[in-house]
Amino acid sequence: MAFSSGIHVVCxxxxxxxxxxxxxxxxWARTMSGAGATDIAVPTGANTSVMFEIAAGVDAFITRGATxxxxxxxxxxxxxxxxxxxxxxxxxxxxKLAWAAA
Length: 102
Description:
Elements: E1 7-17, E2 20-32, E3 36-37, E4 50-56, E5 60-65, E6 79-81, E7 86-90, E8 96-101
Antiparallel strand pairs: 1-2, 1-4, 3-8, 4-7, 5-6, 5-8
């Protein structure tokens, strides 16, 4: 069955091998069928090579932060992830991710 609703987010470290950025260590992953923020944050001991990898089943606006801004608000600093695409966002320890349908 195709992934056709919500988003799937992975919090992980990234490293480079043969000029390709690859997932290294997965801290956690969440599939979110409804808009909102993740229930868990980037671990506080994480280093600076941590990212969120987001796979979208619908067009989605994404924000991040310790208290992520409202992704539904046009005035929020947000990223658009189109349905069927995957986007990577670097993040900081303590960050959460929030999303809303575009």
